[in-house]
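Appendix B, Record 12. Input sequence as logged:
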Amino acid sequence: REGEREREGEREREREREREREREREREREREICKIGEIGCS
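Logged structural output:
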């Protein structure tokens, strides 16, 4: 039963990292669009 919770925590951290990478890609895309000048830069 201990290992069960352990694996659950692993999956949770994995999802966290996934969301982090997603946000990173979003910021990258925004910077690219900003350079192109399609949208006003903040």
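The mean pLDDT is 87.
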